[in-house]
Write the structure tokens for this entry.
Amino acid sequence: MLNRARPARSTFEHGYAVVIAITGFDGLIEFVAGLILLVAPRLTGSALEALAAELAEGTPPLRDAAASSIAAADGGLVTGTAPLAVFLLVHGLAKLLTVTALLRRAIRCSPRALTALSVLLVVQLADLDAAPAVGGTVLAVLDVVVITLVTWEYRRLRRERAVPAEQEVRPGRIERASAR
């Protein structure tokens, strides 16, 4: 049995793999959070209140900022649970499907994934404009990185799978050309 050595992976390829893993994990968390918000919104509110209270006990400014952010998010859950849950479900599912397509190198899924992620990014940016938050900004930046990587991978796969016109054999073309 031949033992073929794999070519060394570049720094970009390592970074790409890490971002894809983070995106998949983030998509899973968003999807599960959306399900929990739909099924048990009061439970989510109680958990956020407890977490905010726990973080507020510390004195460092980072804990205070986190506690106030969580408390503000809890207040928004009462009025906007359903839209938030739907957004999290759709966004999480889009990320999970995108990661699956990237891992399978499914080139035909890339334009749809790019469209879905771009639309969701616009919604996310509009929400950030209305209510700025550090966590939302971090997730928006991650989405921009993912959109960039999906675009890069789509173009790379298209180049890789493209066959130069000189090498392409189409019997119908040859017959028509010789018939003229």
Remarks:
- DSSP finds six helices and no strands in the chain.
- The mean pLDDT is 75.
- The first helix runs from residue 11 to 39.
- The helical segments are 11-39, 41-56, 61-104, 110-130, 134-161, 171-179.
